[in-house]
Description:
By secondary structure, the chain is an alpha/beta fold. It has helices spanning about 10-25, 35-40, 60-75, 90-100, 130-135, 155-170, 195-200, 215-225, 240-250, 260-265, 320, 325-335, and strands spanning about 5, 30-35, 50-55, 80-85, 105, 120, 175-180, 205-210, 230-235, 250-255, 270-275, 290-295.
Amino acid sequence: MGGSLVIQTSFLGDVILTTPLIAELARRGTVDVLVTPGGAAALANNPDIRTVIRYDKRGTYGAAVGMWQTIQEIRGRRPYKAAYLAQGSFRSGLIAMMTGAKERIGFRSSTGRVLYTIQVPYRPDRHHVERLWSLSMSDCADPPTRDQVRPRLYPSDEDRRMVDSLLRQSRSTDEPFVALAPGSAWGTKRWPYYVELAKLLADDFRIAVIGSKADSAIAAQITEALPPDTVINAVGILPLLASAELIGRAQAIVTNDSAPQHLASAMGTPTVTIFGPTVPEFGFGPLAERSAVAGNDSLSCRPCDRHGPQRCPLGHWRCMRELTPDYISSLLTEVLNPSVPV
Length: 342
Ligand code: SF4
C-alpha cells in the first residue's frame, strides 16, 4: 500500500506551516501533496515531497470540473495509505475519500470531519504549525521539538542568482539590510506607517521592500522617500522562493500578520510582526528564534476577525493607527540585539 497524501488548499502561509508535517510523514514513506497553484510555488525543490499535485479551485473550468480532474489525477497515481486533511473543508474531505485512501485524518473541528476516519483534537492553545504536525501523531505523543516544527523552504540556485543580481544593483551584495513587507490581502492588516519607519531606519540600514505586484503603490512611496542607493525595491519582481532567499539574507524583517512572516520563519530571519485586528494567540505568529510581536492590547474590540476585515467595522482602526513607527523601530532594535531576551 502506498504512502501519504497531504491536502492543503489554504493560503500560502498555511502551506508553509504544513512543511513540518510533510517532513515528518516523509520519514515514514512517500508523500504527495495537493495544493493550489499559488501554494505549489512554496513547495518547489522540497526533498520531502514525491509529487506536488495542483488543484486549481478557481480554474478555467470552475471548481467542480477542477475537482473532478484533480481526483482523476490522484486516482491514476496509486492508492494512498492515508490522506492528511491540513485544510478542513467538506470538499477536501470528499477529495480524500475519492482517492481511495483508507485512513483520512483531520481535525475534529473541521467542516469535513464526517468524512474522516480519524479526528484529531484542534488545540487552540498551540501554534498552527504544531496543530498541523499533530495530525501525524497519536494523542499521547510528546510535544514536538523546535526542529520538528521548523517550516522549510528550498530556494534554488537560480533563486540565489536572482537575489545576487538584485542586491548588486544597490551597492554591495554583502551590505546589511532590513526587509519591509508592507502588504496583506486584508486591508485592516496593513500597518499604515511603513514609509515613516523606512525613513527612521534608513540612517542605519539599507531597506529592501518585499511583496507582490499588489504592493507596488506602497513600495513606490517607500522608494521615493529614501535616497536611491539605500533602498531595494523587490516588489512584484521575484518569484516566491527568491523572495524567501532575499528575506533569508536580511538582518531582520518587519511584516504584517501575513505570508512574509512565514517565509521569515522558514529562513530563520529575526522578525517583528505587526498585528492589528488579529492576535498571535490564533496560532500564526512568527517562529524565527529572534522574534517580537506588536499589537494594541488596550482595545476591547481586538481581535475582531480571524483574518482581518477589509475595513475597520468601528471606523477608527485604532488597532493599527496607534502603533507608532518609533515603537516598531524599538522592537526591531531588540530583535537585532542578541543580548536582549525576546
Ligand atoms: S474593530 Fe478594533 S480590532 Fe477590528 S479593525 Fe477596528 S480597531 Fe482593529
